[in-house]
Specification:
The protein is built from 18 helices and six strands. By secondary structure, the chain is mainly alpha-helical. The protein has two domains: about 260 residues, no CATH class; about 170 residues. A four-stranded mixed beta sheet has the order 3-4-5-6.
């Protein structure tokens, strides 16, 4: 252990540690949903950091291991009584130590604050473990590259090559097969608030990466010592482990998310009642403050809002009967104006799945200028005159017309024009 800690202190991984913590925190913090504390999103943020810290430590590891070729084995043989095998393991372990340490620090910086505010579920530990092992795979790959090519240009080449490989699996792999991106620990960049991570997929990834890690370390030992017996001893098991991981990933019918709702809504208040997934309890009052002005404008109209449900967009995103869907990505500055406008547009859009009376409507095949009239109505519902102004003069005119009506006249107008609104067939005559 004395030799190991001496190598840890002298490893270039110490320099990489500081850079990795800063870079990892920046990319991870940028992935967090502003103003929210959701475990699945926080887990994703930590995992994403490996996209940059992995290639970084690949370069560090290749620099450390290239010392074998640049200076020979004498220094390491003197430090390691068990010979070359111990020298390889000690040097590799020192670099891995700093890589894992940086990953743990980044994880702590993100997960601990979330832990004080999160109201539901827990970190996706299997996903976090998979990304941690993936980080070690980068270290091992860089280490082997430094052994095979002990050159000063090997570290930067290793950084670029590993980053390119990650991006290919993550993005380009789908060109060959839609399941290939699932081999990447960072596949799930678009986490949904109402779906949980598919831990079975990430457990399979963990097996896939563990197998690769063992194969790479075996290659490192063989490169230095020529001890080929180790190949027959561990590589078949490692290959089997990786194969099981890959096969289960490709045969699993699901993606990185479990596409079903595994929660009951938490509802509170009236006029309207606000219902959110339990992970969003702390955001419920902010959502109420955002949608309450809209609900007040629509009281007594066919579009009256009695219940609002925070849902995901798309699959399984329809609200329960009698509720209006509200979508929210985060609570960054301006989120309320943006998300309330989206809700207002959904309320007026035929078959939008928002839950309004217009869900039963059939859109005109040629809405033409009606789209602008409808934008003016949406701007009034959302309290966004700027949206009407940004659309065009027709939208601005319809917005001003409806604003100048009395509440009773507006309610009557909306009631009389439900069919035209829900079929997106408003005309100039409707605003006279």
């Amino acid at each position: 252990m004395t030799v190991f800690w001496a190598e840890v202190r002298h490893s270039k991984g110490l320099l990489g540690f500081g850079v990795a913590v800063v870079v990892g925190w920046i990319i991870a913090n940028g992935t967090l949903w502003s103003g929210l504390s959701i475990w699945s999103n926080a887990s994703q943020a930590v995992v994403v950091s490996v996209l940059l810290t992995g290639p970084l430590f690949a370069g560090v590891a290749s620099w450390d291991s290239s010392r074998f070729g640049r200076y020979g084995l004498r220094d390491h043989w003197r430090q390691a009584g068990d010979g070359g095998r111990a020298a390889v393991l000690i040097l590799a372990s020192a670099t891995s130590f700093w890589a894992l340490a940086s990953y743990i620090v980044v994880g702590a910086l993100l997960l601990v604050p979330v832990g004080f505010r999160a109201t539901w579920s827990q970190p996706a530990w299997v996903w976090l473990a998979s990304a941690g092992v993936a980080l070690l795979v980068h270290v091992a790959a860089g280490f082997v590259a430094g052994l095979l090519f002990p050159s000063l240009i090997t570290p930067p080449v290793a950084v670029v090559a590993l980053y390119a490989a990650d991006q290919f699996v993550f993005i380009g792999g789908a060109i060959l097969n839609v399941r290939i991106p699932l081999l990447s620990w960072s596949f799930n960049q678009a986490q949904s608030p109402t779906f949980q991570p598919n831990l079975a997929i990430f457990a399979s990834q963990l097996a896939w990466y563990l197998g690769i890690l063992v194969i790479l370390w075996t290659a490192a030992v063989i490169c230095v010592t020529g001890w080929r017996r180790i190949f027959a001893m561990v590589v078949p098991v490692a290959v089997l482990l990786s194969a099981v991981g890959v096969i289960t990933i490709f045969t699993n019918p699901d993606g990185p998310l479990v596409l079903k709702h595994q929660f009951s809504y938490a509802c509170a208040g009236k006029a309207p009642t606000i219902c959110v997934p339990p992970a969003y309890k702390l955001a419920a009052e902010d959502i109420r403050s955002a949608v309450q002005p809209v609900a007040k404008r629509l009281v007594g109209t066919p579009f009256q809002i009695d219940r609002v449900e925070l849902t995901n967009r798309g699959y399984l995103g329809d609200p329960h009967s009698g509720a209006i869907a509200f979508h929210m990505d985060n609570m960054a500055p301006g989120w309320a104006d943006q998300d309330v406008l989206e809700m207002a547009q959904g309320i007026l859009t035929p078959q939008s799945g928002t839950g309004s009376i217009c869900d039963e409507g059939v859109a005109s095949t040629d809405p033409g200028v009606s789209q602008s009239y409808l934008a003016g109505v949406a701007a009034w519902i959302a309290g966004r005159p700027d949206f009407a102004a940004q659309t065009d003069g027709v939208a601005t005119g319809s917005y001003k017309w409806i604003v100048h009506l009395t509440p009773e006249s507006r309610s009557k107008w909306l009631t009389q024009h439900v069919q035209a609104i829900c079929s997106n067939s408003l005309t100039a005559a409707d605003f006279e």
